[in-house]
Amino acid sequence: MMGFAVSDELLGTVAPIVVTGSDDEADKAQKFSLLVLARQFVTAMIILDTWQYFMHRYMHHNKFLYKHIHSQHHRLIVPYAYGALYNHPVEGLILDTVGGALSFLISGMSPRTSIFFFSFATIKTVDDHCGLWLPGNLFHMVFKNNTAYHDIHHQLHGTKYNFSQPFFVMWDRILGTYMPYSLEKKEDGGFEARPTKEYKDD
């Protein structure tokens, strides 16, 4: 399991350098600017989110892919941090490596910038799967796609909803797969994410 996480990070860091030549060439050609960096990050976030939404949803709707590939990740009914990248190697290739390569290439970021972007995306993904709603968590304040949002997806009937990952919820909202939730305080401590509308059976 940890091997998959390491291989995903290694591919996300090494692949851009192999594709573009060297880190030095890309940095010389690109003048550093915070505005350029912000544009590249936002572009990469939108590209990665779009790719992950449609591929993730397809893996749920294609019975063969779900049974033989994506179901490995959904063995985790209650997500935990290590489970973020607990998936079949083919899923890692399709969702993470191809999606990462597309977001890298289309955004125009340098390999050095991509190290920060993919590290940020991985930390965000781990946080989304940690199963903890911690007060003051910046990810929960900035992103609607957070731990509770993704917990709904991992619940028994939630696999038909909340496909978006790792940053925004726009595709779920646009395409009708958004499942709102509420956080309910548990008697023994902590919170539980519960859907606030009825599940529809297909």
TrEMBL record:
<keyword id="KW-1133">Transmembrane helix</keyword>
<feature type="domain" description="Fatty acid hydroxylase">
    <location>
        <begin position="41"/>
        <end position="177"/>
    </location>
</feature>
<dbReference type="Pfam" id="PF04116">
    <property type="entry name" value="FA_hydroxylase"/>
</dbReference>
<dbReference type="GO" id="GO:0016020">
    <property type="term" value="C:membrane"/>
</dbReference>
<comment type="similarity">
    <text>Belongs to the sterol desaturase family.</text>
</comment>
<dbReference type="InterPro" id="IPR006694">
    <property type="entry name" value="Fatty_acid_hydroxylase"/>
</dbReference>
<dbReference type="InterPro" id="IPR050307">
    <property type="entry name" value="Sterol_Desaturase_Related"/>
</dbReference>
<protein>
    <submittedName>
        <fullName>Sphinganine C4-monooxygenase 1</fullName>
    </submittedName>
</protein>
<keyword id="KW-0472">Membrane</keyword>
<keyword id="KW-0812">Transmembrane</keyword>
